[in-house]
Write a structure and sequence with these properties.
The protein is an alpha/beta fold and 734 residues long. The protein has 20 helices and 31 strands. The protein is globular and about 100 Å long. It starts with a strand and ends in a 6-residue tail after the last strand. The structure holds adenosine-5'-diphosphate and zinc ion (2 copies). One zinc ion binds next to loops.
Length: 734
């Protein structure tokens, strides 16, 4: 047999695999997908074996032997290996770092996969033979003799190794059907039986159509866009589709947005199914995460629910993928490995030959275009489930109104009316803290972050100026630093100020604030749910976090204090985001029997986007927006990549991008270049940032170009003097 070498993906910022030889101490060729310890320079690193080759790229005499094999089995089924390898190429991110991202922290650090080490025992057939049967192999005979007295608990492989019984020998016995590995190790051949904890609801007509379409395709690849207004019962469609998947002894994977994984969501899955469900989210300890990951890997967990990176969880019997709130930005990772879990979910489903369902009340324009072009089957739920009607939406013109912490007289009146009826109200404002501006009334000076091109937000309790972009924080001055005046005024309102004003207006009503500052306290959600569930008058004030996944049955009024904020963003997706946000927030109103009202405060009530939303809803807006994107050739009708460069001096980042662009313009398949330009917020945390945008009308041409261009860029001497990266299919141009 000719000699083989291992191709290992190592967590280093280089776009390549590394070759290692197999030391004599290894009893067999390791499995692809297993972790291995190898020497790297003067360090020792843990990598994943991605390939085995007889013809390595490095010169043979330079190849060092690997040190230690960590896993006897592959951690990634072949489909996942393929997905990760593909993703590394598509997003142009070092393959070793991609594999590293896909692993739970403890596994990355070399921890054993199993709590229980691998055990061996004899099979029923193995118990019926005698040692004589194995007289032709002394090794196998010794192994049989060692195992025979320990049938009830078996013997750990580590122990067997210590008494010179090698894995290869045990495997030879296994091949003859005399011995087997067992315990936590064995990947289950099928996921446990479907068991209900409560019976499903009776699906309505459109739900039934959707469920049939999806379940009919179990066992094959097919993409669905489940386009259903808020409260239309999308979750019920997921649950019933999952039930069919579980009935086939397959596993279901559910991806949810970062802040959508609420206790309520989880409770709905748990109260429906009496099967093993695991969660993977940022709130877990490393140990808990490994445990959940292992249950999925072994095929024990029937349902795996989690945020973006959960997509990379190995599941031997994956039968259905669901991406809930598919339009949500959190599916795209915004740093390091900049993948889009929603897009990769489609590819994973294709590799696993299973259906994938993207669900939303406000589908992304990308997914709508895919549905229009027939790549996704478009399923609609147009009515709210359980005979609840859609809320009424009205605009409040803010011009010339006297505002109290951003609240207009008409809004205060409406709130008071609802509270009197013991109903609940949500006030939405996408700005936390007390006030966004600290202004000198005498000279016009405004407090700014010294490290960013941005205003700094005033917070109370404790009184601080706090930058929401870089985390910088300082005492507010007592006097204006320009003119020494004492007349410093807090202008505008953040959630804290609104909360204070409401407390004054409605002193007897419980008021809950939900934003990043408030929810750091662990009990805050708990108290909130307790108050919400007793169905008495209450007010919730919050940011975006309130817009997702929650079910507040007694909320009958939802107000957006600044419906037009965000309409004028520099990003071409600004209007899509605003339309989604308004629609999602509005969806929180009147979810149960009582009719809902949505009030949008705006200084520009005649803005075409607001008018469009009011008259035709999100769908009408999306039609128009798609036509507009097509006209200008922007996504989903064009393909973008964004290069961001960061340097300590403003010119440096721009110059680097100019140089990079001129190297690119002469290559084949060169895309359109836009820029380079300073980033919308040029200075952030003391660093100057610049952008170069690439646009092509063909995905594959852009990819071919990027492969060549990035190789050239990596070799530019300037490339090593500053930080830069490429973002393929960027979601935010910030
Ligand atoms: P979505 O996920 O689309 O926002 P949900 O699945 O949360 O909608 O459903 C909204 C409400 O309607 C929930 O209280 C749910 O229990 C109820 N519901 C959904 N489908 C049905 C049905 N077929 N019959 C009765 N109630 C339903
Ligand atoms: Zn001043
Ligand atoms: Zn700052």
């Amino acid at each position: 047999m000719s000699r083989v070498y291992l191709q290992v993906a190592l967590p280093v910022p280089l776009h390549q695999l590394f070759d290692y030889s197999i030391p004599a101490s290894f009893s067999h060729t390791p499995h692809i997908g297993a972790r291995i310890k190898v020497p790297f320079g003067r360090r020792e690193l843990i990598g994943v074996i991605v390939g085995v080759t007889e013809t390595p790229e490095s010169p043979i005499h330079k190849i060092k032997p690997a040190r230690q094999l960590i896993d006897e089995h592959s951690l990634f089924p072949p489909q996942l290996m393929q997905l990760l390898t593909w993703a590394a190429q598509y997003y142009h991110y070092p393959i070793g770092e991609v594999f590293s991202t896909a692993l739970p922290t403890l596994l990355r650090q070399g921890e054993d996969l199993y709590d229980n080490p691998i055990h061996w025992r004899l099979t029923p057939v193995g118990l019926q033979i005698t040692a004589d049967t194995l007289s032709r192999s002394a090794k196998q005979q010794a192994a049989w003799l060692a195992l025979e007295p320990h049938q009830s608990h078996g013997i750990s492989e580590d122990f067997l190794k210590k008494v010179q019984i090698e894995r290869a020998t045990l495997q030879a016995l296994a091949k003859k059907g005399f011995a087997e590995e067992f315990g936590q190790l064995a990947i289950q051949t099928g996921t446990p039986q479907l068991k209900y904890a409560e019976s499903p609801l009776v699906a309505n007509e459109s739900q039934t159509t959707a469920i049939h379409a999806i379940t009919e395709h179990l066992g094959q690849f097919k993409s669905f866009l489940l386009d259903g207004v808020t409260g239309s019962g999308k979750t019920e469609v997921y649950l019933q589709s999952i039930a069919s998947c579980l009935a086939k002894h397959q596993q279901a994977l559910v991806l949810v947005p970062e802040i959508g994984l609420t206790p309520q969501t989880v409770a709905r899955f748990r109260s429906r199914f009496a099967v093993e469900i695991v969660m993977l989210h940022s709130g877990l300890t490393d140990r808990e995460r490994l445990r959940a990951w292992r249950r999925a890997y072994l095929g024990h967990a029937a349902i795996v629910i989690g945020t973006r990176s959960t997509l990379f969880t190995p599941m031997p019997h994956l039968g259905l993928i669901i991406v809930d709130e598919e339009h949500d930005l959190s599916f795209k990772q915004q740093d390091n490995f900049r993948y889009n879990a929603r897009d990769l979910a489609i590819f994973r489903a294709q590799l696993a030959s299973c259906p994938v369902v993207l669900g939303s009340a406000t589908p992304s324009l990308e997914s709508l275009a895919n549905a229009k072009q027939g790549r996704y089957q478009h399923l609609f739920l147009k009515e709210r489930a359980a005979n609840v009607s859609q809320p009424t939406i009205k605009l409040i013109d803010l011009r010339g109104q006297k505002l109290q912490a951003g609240l207009s007289p008409a809004l205060k009146e409406a709130i008071s009316l609802r509270l009197k009826k013991d109903e609940q109200v949500i006030i939405f404002l996408n700005r936390r803290g007390f006030a966004p501006v600290l202004l000198c009334h005498d000279c016009g000076w405004q407090a700014k972050c010294p490290r960013c091109d941005a205003k700094i937000t005033l917070h109370r309790n404790p009184l601080r100026l706090h930058c929401h972009h870089c985390g910088f924080s300082q005492q507010p001055p007592n006097f204006c630093p320009e003119c020494n005046s004492k007349e410093l005024k807090a202008i505008g309102a953040g959630t804290v100020r609104v909360e204070e004003a409401l407390q004054e207006l409605f002193p007897k009503v419980p008021i809950h604030r939900i934003d990043r500052d408030s929810t750091q306290r662990k009990d805050s959600w708990h108290n909130l749910y307790a108050d919400i569930e007793n169905n008495k008058a209450a007010i919730l004030v919050g940011t975006q976090m309130l817009a997702k996944g929650h079910h507040f049955p007694n909320v009958t009024l939802v107000a957006l204090l600044e419906a037009d904020s965000g309409l004028f963003g520099a990003d071409f997706r600004a209007s899509e985001r605003v339309a989604q946000l308004i629609t999602q927030v509005a969806g929180r109103a009147g979810r149960a029997r009582k009719a809902g009202l949505v009030l949008l405060q705006s200084h520009q009530p005649e803005h075409p986007l607001l008018q469009q939303l009011l008259s035709t809803g999100y769908q009408g807006f999306a039609e128009l927006a798609l036509a507009e994107r097509e006209m200008i050739g922007m996504p989903p009708y064009g393909y973008l990549a964004l290069v961001r460069a960061e340097a300590h001096y403003p010119e440096m980042a721009l110059n680097f991008l100019t140089e990079a662009m001129s190297r690119g313009q002469v290559l084949d398949n060169a895309p359109e270049f836009w820029g380079p330009i300073p980033a919308p917020m040029e200075k952030k945390a003391g660093i100057f940032r610049a952008h170069l945008l690439l646009k092509s009308n063909q995905r594959s041409r852009l990819q071919q170009f990027l492969h060549r261009w990035l190789t050239i860029m990596n070799d530019l001497p300037e490339a090593k003097r500053l930080r830069w990266h490429i973002d393929v299919d960027p979601q935010e141009l910030a």
